[in-house]
């Protein structure tokens, strides 16, 4: 790595994190949540409330001054590439996960304090074993392989002979600790690498998208057919290596073996007080992280397929060009009245058969049952037809009255109170409620539930007066829509 | 007509756009009886649009010209003329959807109310009363929710752009609108030249 390479990394998110003013906060908080607890995908509300607690605690202790709200910090950290904010499928709440840059920074900082004991022997053993595997695994000469195997057999024979003679050769506590430490670091490193694997896969996905989006014409088609292979991501080197690991881990036999060995090692008297209880949970943590990554692969593959299946990217590019062109046109026309609108078929079919309307029925006084029943079918629209079913209020007449009043007003606005002064209610609550639904082209209804007033009106069908608390309603003239309404 | 079609057809027509994620059961029925539903809707002069990859389906009015015998059929689906502002928002949202598809791996496009306001603000005539402008845009947002192009999420002030906008406002629609604006501009210029 020469000077330029290092200088280029100066802007790496992990490096920027180390330089940040509030790096201790980020490293401590995110390290605890995402690394120690190995949480992947924390809902925004949960993370905000935890950070809030932490900030409160720090400010109270005077350990630092963190005046901004928790959400603001999270936004900044996301923008800096330390956290990833995303919406999991089917959820409306944003989730956060650490990026591999954050993991690297956390790992680096945690490696800073001097360790009292650094095992070297076990690592040397590992290296020799790995080298032997490689050399042996690629050896083509059968004789060489046989020689190697007989050497191993001789070594095992010697060991058996020694044990028969009563010489039991045990690992010294020191050698044991050395090995334990290596297992611990490798296990944690492996866990950390999952985030990087995920990040790599995302990067791969981004590159593919970019390639497809920028490829021109025939080449694009070619590329698209080539990439239609939905395994594009799973088949990459990164994807395959990960899959092999995942398969290995998923085998119940291996899991059991792994757990038994870990449990056994953890109970060794020689390691008393030096074991890390978290290590016992590591197979689960691996499995969880691997599953997460597996999900990412699946999602990315699925999305990439959708993206490619999208009747070619030509359409997308054309859409983008057209949108830009329309934007330019509209920008030239800003300020003109009567700009034309789109004409669209909206897929909904509204059927209103006249025979479904009920005939006039004399009104009965009904006890008001204020318990609200959940609408069973599409709860999207509140059905108040029951409420006004007995009385027919013609919204057109009301709209006319309001329109006239709004037009007459110099500000183009009119409150419901003023309208009712001119046109008192004659049909009671039903009429009042209809006013709330008057929004139509050319007329906007703004309801401000925070400001209410008392309306007193005559009862319908009996003597006396009733009072209603009504939110402040303002009718607004809507210039853009008005012409469209008149044009019809 | 067998009654297995009742549930999917009525749901399709009532819901407007039916998403797999909203009604998985009905979605499975639609996929299973795709051809039969298509035939049935054809009788009504409608045409079934299914995007299995995106997981949505809706019925569309067929072009009246496509009838062989030349008889005129009134439209079952009303054609809406949208106000300029709502059209503008549709166009801009379609652009945002295309951008997000090309650059991000997230299939869902979520925008906050502020994003939406910022998006259109520059294209609407400036007003001195900012609050009024924002209120106006809110009314447009409500309209878009009624049109099911936007969906209010459980997080207040955040809206999801529904993916069927892709089919609803495709390159054809955009191209036509582009031409319409061009014609409009020309008619604006023309009288001035005459004077």
From TrEMBL, chain A:
- Does the keyword Coiled coil feature in the UniProt annotation? yes
Entry coiled-coil feature ranges? 146-207
Q: Which UniProt keywords apply?
A: Cell projection, Cilium, Coiled coil, Flagellum
Enumerate the InterPro entries for this protein.
DUF3375
Q: Which Pfam families match?
A: DUF3375
What name does this protein carry?
Flagellar motility protein MotE (MotC chaperone)
TrEMBL record, chain B:
Cite the InterPro entries for this sequence.
JetB (IPR025449)
The superkingdom of the source organism is Bacteria
- Tell me what this protein is called: DUF4194 domain-containing protein
């Amino acid at each position: 790595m020469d000077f330029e390479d290092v200088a280029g990394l100066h802007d790496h998110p992990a490096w920027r994190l180390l330089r940040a003013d509030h790096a201790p906060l980020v490293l401590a908080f995110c390290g605890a949540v995402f690394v120690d607890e190995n949480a992947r995908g924390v809902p925004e509300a949960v993370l905000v409330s935890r950070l809030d607690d932490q900030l409160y605690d720090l400010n109270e202790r005077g350990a630092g001054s963190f005046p901004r709200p928790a959400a603001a910090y999270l936004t900044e950290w996301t923008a800096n590439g330390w956290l990833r904010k995303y919406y999991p499928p089917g959820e409306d709440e944003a989730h956060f996960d650490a990026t591999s840059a954050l993991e690297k920074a956390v790992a680096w900082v945690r490696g800073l304090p001097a360790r009292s004991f650094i095992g070297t022997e076990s690592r040397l053993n590992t290296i020799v074993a790995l080298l032997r595997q490689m050399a042996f695994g690629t050896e083509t000469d059968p004789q060489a392989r046989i020689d190697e195997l007989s050497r191993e057999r001789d070594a095992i024979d010697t060991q058996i002979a020694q044990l028969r003679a009563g010489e039991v050769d045990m690992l010294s506590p020191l050698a044991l600790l050395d090995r334990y430490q290596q297992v611990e670091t490798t296990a944690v490193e492996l866990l950390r690498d999952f985030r990087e694997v995920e990040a790599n896969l995302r990067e791969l996905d981004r590159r593919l998208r970019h390639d497809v989006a920028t490829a021109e014409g025939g080449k694009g088609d070619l590329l698209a057919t080539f990439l239609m292979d939905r395994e594009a991501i799973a088949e990459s080197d990164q994807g395959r290596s990960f899959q092999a690991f995942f398969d290995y881990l998923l085998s119940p036999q291996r899991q059991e073996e792994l757990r038994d060995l870990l449990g056994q090692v953890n109970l060794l008297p020689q390691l008393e007080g030096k074991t890390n209880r978290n290590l016992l949970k590591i197979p689960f943590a691996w499995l969880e992280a691997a599953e997460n990554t597996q999900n990412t692969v699946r999602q990315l593959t699925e999305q990439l397929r959708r993206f490619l299946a999208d009747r070619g990217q030509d359409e997308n590019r054309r859409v983008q060009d057209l949108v830009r062109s329309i934007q330019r046109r509209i920008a030239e026309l800003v300020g003109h009245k009567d700009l034309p609108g789109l004409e669209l078929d909206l897929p909904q079919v509204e059927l209103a058969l006249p025979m479904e309307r009920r005939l006039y029925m004399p009104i009965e006084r009904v006890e008001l049952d204020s318990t609200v029943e959940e609408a069973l079918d599409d709860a999207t629209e509140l059905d108040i037809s029951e409420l006004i079913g007995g009385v027919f209020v013609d919204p057109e007449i009301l709209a006319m009255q309001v329109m006239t009043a709004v037009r007459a007003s110099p500000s183009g606005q009119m409150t419901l109170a003023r309208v009712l002064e001119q046109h008192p209610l004659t049909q009671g609550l039903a009429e009042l409620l209809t006013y709330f639904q008057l929004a139509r082209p050319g007329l906007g209804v703004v309801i401000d539930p925070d400001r209410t007033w008392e309306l007193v009106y005559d009862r319908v069908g009996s003597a006396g007066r009733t009072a209603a608390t009504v939110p402040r309603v303002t009718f607004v003239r809507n210039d853009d829509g008005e012409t469209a309404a008149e044009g019809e | 007509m067998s009654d297995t079609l009742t549930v999917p057809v009525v749901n399709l027509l009532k819901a407007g756009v039916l998403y797999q994620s909203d009604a998985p059961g009905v979605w499975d029925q639609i996929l299973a009886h795709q051809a039969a539903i298509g035939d049935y809707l054809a009788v009504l002069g409608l045409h079934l649009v299914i995007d299995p990859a995106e997981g949505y389906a809706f019925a569309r009015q067929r072009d009246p010209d496509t009838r062989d015998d030349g008889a005129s059929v009134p439209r079952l689906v009303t054609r809406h003329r949208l106000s300029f502002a709502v059209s503008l928002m549709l166009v801009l949202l379609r652009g945002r959807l295309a951008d997000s598809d090309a650059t991000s791996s997230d299939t869902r496009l979520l925008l906050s109310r502020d994003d939406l306001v910022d998006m259109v603000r520059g294209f609407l005539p400036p007003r001195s009363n900012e609050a009024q402008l924002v209120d106006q845009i809110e009314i447009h947002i409500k309209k878009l929710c009624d049109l099911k192009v936007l969906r209010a999420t459980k997080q207040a002030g955040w809206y999801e752009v529904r993916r069927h906008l892709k089919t609803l406002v495709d390159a054809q629609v955009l191209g036509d609108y582009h031409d319409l604006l061009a014609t409009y501009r020309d008619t604006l210029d023309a009288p001035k030249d005459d004077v």
